[in-house]
Design goal:
3 domains, alpha/beta, 6-stranded antiparallel beta sheet, Rossmann fold, Luciferase, domain 3, GMP Synthetase, Chain A, domain 3, about 600 residues
């Protein structure tokens, strides 16, 4: 008896269509791609050069719109130069660090680009961080100059005494709405730069493509965010790849940017890509689902950057007749799930979704150059998707001790080769860098970077994002370190030990935080209110666990590593779990018992997490 043919997988890339689109792409952008490849080898061009070039090439074009402020490319470069000259007057030089904790506003880009012109490194501190995490980030990249936004001063001031600042470290205050005067011990930097020269500094010509320009933070297995060094080449490649080739941006485009600028997606796709192309960047202070499309129409925006959660929030709004009435022609970002991809595209009348996959610490990535649906795109660099044992939490190696690639349509762990120009720069912590590398993967001596993500091979060098694994998961568009959550849990006096992980909630992207706890006291004596307060004090809002599960013990491996596989699988399914479960509902700050009624309402999507 003949077997019935298997139905065709709709997500697999059609080879004939792939070849057609690839030919069209190379005929249009092949030379640009070659130019981009040469950048690192020639090591001549810096981001400051791009800024100065654009000040001439797009002199009168609007570079930045922010509330009532409009800056042309010429005016923007002049402000960058004022700050650059001031930093030089302070004695800052190539390799020095400038720490900034600044909310979304033009000054963040001005200071970042100014420091780049003299070869200094800007450490972009997450403005959502609090207490211990904030203190850690400020200590791991100590700056000769520290610039604090008015809106961030209160949180900075709480950890200031723990930073053991030296006399060489200068503190600056950046006013915003004028509700707070410049604090004692700080200098108002906005006043210092007002009358400084506007000509380009001589230092720009001395900065090379592979010189570092910034530290961006990513979640880490050490329990706190890790500082990943980013060089000028990454900034320039963002303009080439995300702006020209993936987004096909032009000087006529207007990019509405509401994602945080200290985050890779907001910075690379929302600012660097349009800036390099001479387009306009309309900066919002923060993302607002209720104002989003009104502001898109207000600025007549033709593009915006996204993370998957942004798209989900927009889709969760009640449909209305204005949804498709916008000028957006392309969106650039990551994490748009295939289950809402086509509906999102159709509802908001968006011709192109320029999905990408990558991270601050990954030397490589995927880009949807060829505009296929439901894919992270194509990877120009050397990568592999290898078989992975979820229960053992490690890649599968064969009898020859080497890893094995997955077959077409299969899911596995994505690795990027670390070699040559794409050798991983790593983190400030060498142990953290080494923990992300696999050696002897396909042959003796090779080195590959562990993305920590499961991708699906859909053919023609394309892939789909499936999930994050291990010690990091994604929630609210941010990477959450489970170890960071566990550190807060395990110092709580009523917790013997614990483990944190991500679980899926219907109609949301990513994974919501959940923690399994073995308490030291009877549950009736456990202080849930105090635990919630500790979470809210020490963790960013997106890292606070939504669900708690209390257990008498937790299973471990032979090496005493806590097993999370079964916990993740069981999730918070009250029908299959006898352990006590608690939940922190949206807009609440305390945990309540997860009843059958609440569970059913969560499954029905009646709570907007």
């Amino acid at each position: 008896m003949l077997e019935e043919p298997k139905p065709k997988d709709p997500d697999l890339i059609d080879k004939k269509e792939f070849r057609k689109r690839r030919k069209e792409f190379y005929s249009k952008y092949g030379q640009i791609g070659q130019d981009m490849i040469k950048l690192s080898f020639e090591n001549k061009l810096s981001w400051g050069t791009i800024v100065e070039r654009n000040a001439e090439k797009y002199s009168d074009n609007i570079a930045i719109i922010f509330e009532d402020i409009k800056l042309t490319y010429k005016e923007f470069n002049e402000w960058v130069n004022r700050y650059a000259h001031y930093f030089i007057s302070l004695g800052l030089k190539k390799g020095d660090v400038i720490e900034v904790m600044i909310t979304n506003r033009p000054e963040l880009l001005i200071i970042l680009f100014a420091s780049g012109k003299l070869g200094a490194i800007t450490s972009l501190i997450n403005t959502d961080l609090r207490e211990k995490s904030l203190e850690h980030c400020l200590k791991v990249t100590p700056g000769r100059v520290i610039i604090i936004d008015e809106g961030c001063f209160e949180n900075f001031n709480k950890v200031k005494s723990n930073l053991t600042l030296s006399e060489d470290q200068r503190l600056f205050f950046l006013p915003d709405k004028g509700t707070t005067t410049c604090p004692e011990g700080f200098v108002d930097i906005s006043q210092e730069v007002c009358d400084l020269p506007i000509h380009n500094p001589l230092t720009t010509k001395d900065i090379k493509t592979l010189d570092p320009i910034a530290y961006l933070f990513t979640s880490g297995t050490t329990g706190f965010p890790k500082a990943a060094m980013v060089d000028h080449s990454i900034f320039i490649i963002a303009y080439y790849s995300h702006g020209i080739m993936n987004g096909e941006l032009t000087p006529e485009d207007i990019m509405y940017t509401s994602l945080p600028l200290f985050h890779g997606t907001g910075l690379y796709m929302g600012c660097l890509a349009p800036f390099g192309c001479g387009a306009t960047i309309a900066i919002a202070r923060k993302f607002s689902v209720s104002r989003f499309w009104d502001e898109i129409r207000k600025y007549n925006a033709t593009a915006f950057p996204y993370v998957g959660e942004v798209c989900r929030y927009l889709m969760n709004q009640p449909p209305n007749s204005e949804d498709s009435k916008n000028s957006v022609r392309v969106v650039i970002g990551n994490g748009l799930r295939s289950d809402i991809w086509m509906d999102f595209k159709k509802r908001f009348n968006i011709p192109k979704i320029a999905e990408i996959y990558g991270a601050v610490d990954i030397m490589g990535g995927f880009l949807n150059f060829l505009n296929f649906d439901c894919t992270v795109g194509i990877c120009p660099s050397s990568y592999a998707i290898v078989k992975y044992d979820i229960d053992e939490d490690k890649p599968i190696r064969g009898e020859d001790r080497f890893m094995q690639k997955v077959g077409l349509g299969e899911t596995g762990l994505c690795l990027f080769q670390s070699a040559g120009a794409l050798k991983s720069r790593g983190y400030t912590d060498k142990k953290a860098t080494e923990s992300k590398l696999f050696r002897n993967v396909f042959k003796e001596g090779d080195v590959w970077f562990n993305s920590g993500d499961l991708l699906r091979d859909i053919g023609c060098n394309h892939a789909q994002f499936i999930d994050r694994l291990g010690d990091t998961f994604r929630w609210k568009g941010n990477n959450v370190s489970t170890t960071e959550v566990e550190k807060i849990l395990n110092v709580f006096e009523q917790v013997l030990f614990s483990t944190a992980y991500g679980v899926q909630i219907p109609n949301t992207d990513g994974r919501a935080g959940m923690a399994a706890i073995v308490p030291t006291v009877n549950l009736k004596d456990f202080n849930l209110k105090e635990l919630a307060a500790s979470f809210n004090k020490n963790l960013p809002h997106y890292a606070v666990p939504i669900f708690l599960r209390f257990k008498s013990n937790l299973s471990t491996t032979a090496t005493f590593k806590l097993k999370k596989g079964k916990l993740k699988e069981e999730s918070y399914n009250i029908e299959n779990i006898d352990d006590p479960l608690y939940v922190m509902l949206p807009h609440e700050s305390e945990y309540v018992s997860l009843t059958k009624e609440i569970y059913e309402n969560i499954q029905k999507g009646q709570y907007k997490f």
